[in-house]
């Protein structure tokens, strides 16, 4: 029983951990060099909450009618495929825009007439995310 009381408190403390370097930066004026550890701690807190809530019976996937097995394995794989299509395409779009946008800004600073040509490459990177979203809709609704 004590486990059900302490684990949510630990998870909340882990979720609040990224605020420590922010507060330290405000009070001392120094930037946080090791903030990644606090962000990983918050991620761990989220994972811990995702484990606690179903175990404690706070969240239930079953409806009140008792339809616990409503999703088949095929439905679950369909949702997993849609999530992977969207997520991985958005990661690819982020990489593409992350590489194209600084080059576009540099090109525009040297020659302002190159704005239209530079924007085309940035928009092409964003198109990857839209294609992934379209594929996930095709997976879900067919």
TrEMBL record:
<feature type="transmembrane region" description="Helical">
    <location>
        <begin position="79"/>
        <end position="106"/>
    </location>
</feature>
<protein>
    <submittedName>
        <fullName>ATPase</fullName>
    </submittedName>
</protein>
<feature type="transmembrane region" description="Helical">
    <location>
        <begin position="6"/>
        <end position="24"/>
    </location>
</feature>
<dbReference type="GO" id="GO:0033177">
    <property type="term" value="C:proton-transporting two-sector ATPase complex, proton-transporting domain"/>
</dbReference>
<dbReference type="InterPro" id="IPR002379">
    <property type="entry name" value="ATPase_proteolipid_c-like_dom"/>
</dbReference>
<keyword id="KW-0472">Membrane</keyword>
<feature type="transmembrane region" description="Helical">
    <location>
        <begin position="36"/>
        <end position="59"/>
    </location>
</feature>
<dbReference type="GO" id="GO:0015078">
    <property type="term" value="F:proton transmembrane transporter activity"/>
</dbReference>
<dbReference type="Pfam" id="PF00137">
    <property type="entry name" value="ATP-synt_C"/>
</dbReference>
<keyword id="KW-1133">Transmembrane helix</keyword>
<dbReference type="InterPro" id="IPR035921">
    <property type="entry name" value="F/V-ATP_Csub_sf"/>
</dbReference>
<feature type="transmembrane region" description="Helical">
    <location>
        <begin position="118"/>
        <end position="141"/>
    </location>
</feature>
<keyword id="KW-0812">Transmembrane</keyword>
<feature type="domain" description="V-ATPase proteolipid subunit C-like">
    <location>
        <begin position="80"/>
        <end position="139"/>
    </location>
</feature>
